[in-house]
Amino acid sequence: MKKYDLYAIGNALVDMEYEVHDEFFLKHNIDKGLMTLVDEERQRYLLDALGTAPKKQQCGGSAANTAIAAAQLGARAFLTCKVAKDPIGNFYFQDLQDNGVDSNLTHQDREDGVTGKCLVLVTPDAERSMNTFLGITSTISKSQVDPEAIRQSEYMYMEGYLVASPTGREAAIHARKIAEAAGVKTALTFSDVNMVKFFKEGLREMIGDGVDLLFCNEAEACSFTGTEDILVAREKLKDIAKTFVITLGESGAVIFDGKTFIDVEPYAVKAVDTNGAGDMYAGAFLYAITNGHPFAAAGSLASFAASRVVGQFGPRLRREELSEIKQQVLG
Asked: Looking at the predicted structure, is the pLDDT value of residue 160 above 70?
């Protein structure tokens, strides 16, 4: 039996969530609905413009949110990331530990620098727009990868955002090769349509000869495959992934289990904040398939959990709430 169900690698960012209105985007020249990389000066300017404490602050980054969701459901999870030797880096490490996720931070010395932060701006229409200063996580590299933890995992999961950093992309590729050599299944999330739009070739490098499991939404699937027809896109995705999930927002999701397509019905919800919904979906899905449940059941669990995230502020649910969801869906 493997030590971990899931080994994840991704950017370590402290998520700082704020409620704003569309006027804030116009006034401060912010692209709505996208993740935008900014420098430290620009992020400090936006923090000053917001002028208040965040509504929520948690350790985050896409892979971290997924690992935490899986761990809260009962999976054994490990995260490779990079934070600085600063107060917010200490906060990040402690938050990971409190949520039951092992990491390379336990035994690796941290460097001087600034831990990355992500300003998550949520509007009344539940859209989330992210302005991210990567800080020290922009230099995540192969030296943060833990080969033995990968070998002791069922799945090795890569965050697509890593493609924007040369050393991050190299680290993800390094981790994938270790996993493949050890017979560990590989998984990737495209993370954001901008990653597909601007870094498609880098994502192809991360995918290599193909991954075992891919997560994406409809826009990412169509952009990567160069079509506006989701039926065409899902056929083309078979060339790069043995199995995959395409989330379809209010229309639910479609899953390819390696043989057939499975339609997953959505759970009705009044959207409040979409931040973290995709991360929760991946975490719940990975928990289910690494703990003996079929893809259809995994999709139902993931869809239900993601809908609960959309119906509240913040990218996480309470452990107790996830336990209730698991009991209701999986029994």
From this structure: yes
* pLDDT value for 126: 82
Confidence tier at 35 by pLDDT (50, 70, 90): confident
Q: What is the CATH number of domain 4-330?
A: 3.40.1190.20
Residue 273 and residue 121: Cα distance in Å, rounded? Answer: 10
3-state secondary structure 62-116: HHHHHHHHHHHHCCCEEEECCCCCCHHHHHHHHHHHHCCEEEHHHCCCCCCCCEE
Determine the pLDDT at residue 198.
95
User: Which residue ranges make up each domain of the chain?
Assistant: 4-330
- Interatomic CA distance for residues 100 and 108, integer angstroms: 18
Asked whether the predicted pLDDT for residue 110 surpasses 80, the reply is yes
Residue 276: which residues within 8 A CB-CB, separation 6 or more? 60, 65, 309, 314, 315, 316
How many whole angstroms separate alpha carbon 102 and alpha carbon 89?
Answer: 15
Residues contacting 186, CB < 8 A, separation 6+: 155, 156, 157, 158, 176, 179, 180, 211, 212, 213
H-run or E-run covering 17? strand 13-19
Which pLDDT value is given to residue 55? 87
Please give the pLDDT value at position 233: 98
> Of the candidates 123, 167, 100, which has an alpha carbon nearest to the alpha carbon of residue 23?
123
pLDDT at 148 over 80: yes
Please give the DSSP secondary-structure letter assigned to residue 60. Answer: E
Report the alpha-carbon distance of residue 304 to residue 280 in Å, rounded.
10
